Amino acid sequence: MDRDSGEQIRREMVMASERENFELSGPLHLSSMDWKSTDYRRSVAACLVQGVYILERDRQEKRQGSEALAPPWWNFFHFQLCTPLVDEADSSTFGAIYELKHPMPDDKSSVNDSPRYVIAFRGTLTKGDAFSRDLQLNVHLVRNDLHQTSRFEIAIQAVRSIVATYGSSNIWLAGHSLGSALALLVGKSMAKTGVLLEAFLFNPPFVSAPIERIKDKKVKHGLRIASSVVTAGLAFAMKNSHRKNQTGDTFVALSEWMPCLFVNPADHVCSEYIGYFEHRKNMDEIGVGLIEKLATQHSLGGLVMTAMGKEAGEPLYLIPSAKLTVNLSPSQEFKEAHGIHQWWRSDLLLELKTYKY
Questions:
Q1: Dihedral of CA 169/206/15/125: which sign?
Q2: Is there a domain that residue 313 lies in?
Q3: How many CA atoms lie within 13 Å of 248's alpha carbon, on the beta-carbon side?
Q4: Nearest Cα to 57, choosing from 12, 15, 87, 16?
Q5: Whole-number Å distance between alpha carbons of 326 and 353
Q6: At what angle do helices 178-191 and 131-142 cross, to 10 degrees?
Q7: Which side of the chain, N or C, has fewer Cβ within a 10 Å radius?
Q8: Among 296, 338, 45, which residue's Cα sits nearest to residue 204?
Q9: From residue 251, how far is each of 178, 298, 333 by CA, in Å?
Q10: What region holds the Fungal lipase-type domain (predicted)?
């Protein structure tokens, strides 16, 4: 290894350590508790997810006691760590259950808006021995069978236990990247039973053709219309032929659940959500909303698989309703656009839209 390469590695290690340190990278400006504030709620949820990332990094680096970097990420907001969620396949920490220990907020009327428990999930870690397992989970995500993994089973059982013990009000789900996919899957599973949990999903993966990255708006709009027409036509044909396909019924049943999605246009992992919801509105405006209402319940690939007699998993990204927050602040690189740190910055330029099916 040459001298320049060694120096670069050392700089990257210092920067990584700084990002893990709450005193250097956390939102110290959020000293007043205000659970009515969307900025405060978003920032707290993001920091609790970051706490899970650092829990696993502490485990990998054998940082314990006063050397552990994870606790300030929840202590600052008056939470305590109840239970780390550990993947039985590799013993890595992938989630955590936090409980809010109530000091009285500055605005006493906001106490009812605070969570009692938050179940948070981290995304993929490229460092340490968790990477290979995280990579496997990403493959399951692409194949639409994340629900068949032990990590999902541990997550859903933890959430069901909390809900059974304390009820569903003031229970939050939170996750980033792969972790947001897990939180989304848990939230959808609970919603199908009538339990609607508040969810904060940061940079949630949208596994589909990257149409949103096309710069020409006319081409992009044309492709979306064509895709909708083909998808709706195939779905209608399969319905009339009485083929088994329960996606549409499930989709309608989920329409009352409104997860909060946080996406960045420069992040190709999640940016497709922008076009997914905006296209639905555009189709309504040009008078063909019924076509899109049917098309948005299905994935074209899944319909083709079903038509061929093969079992197709329900695509995770198919959700009927959402509160979509888009970060319009410029990002220097993909790593920044996809990172969790952006979501607690105080200078964000955000656009919020609500989509109800």
A1: positive
A2: no
A3: 15
A4: 16
A5: 8
A6: 50
A7: N
A8: 338
A9: 22, 9, 35
A10: 121-195
With tokens 């009820």, the residue in question is 167
Host domain of residue 260: 18-216+249-282+319-355
Count of the separate structural domains present in the chain: 1
Return the CATH number at 152.
Answer: 3.40.50
The pair of structure tokens assigned to 84 is 């780390």
**Per this entry, what is the length of the chain?**
357
Q: Is residue 27 part of a domain?
A: yes
- CA distance between the termini of the chain: 56
Could you tell me if residue 103 is left (phi over 0), alpha (psi between -120 and 50 degrees) or otherwise beta?
A: beta
* pLDDT classification of 2: cutoffs 50, 70, 90: low
pTM over 0.85: no
Q: What is the mean pLDDT of residues 242-256?
A: 65
79 beta partners: 100
52-61, 198-207, 210-219: least confident range: 210-219
CA separation, residue 195 to residues 9, 129, 161 (Å): 47, 35, 13
Question: Looking at residues 249-261, what average pLDDT do you find?
Answer: 86
Residue 333 pLDDT exceeds 60: yes
Say if 221 falls within a structural domain. Answer: no
Tokens describing residue 236: 């209608």
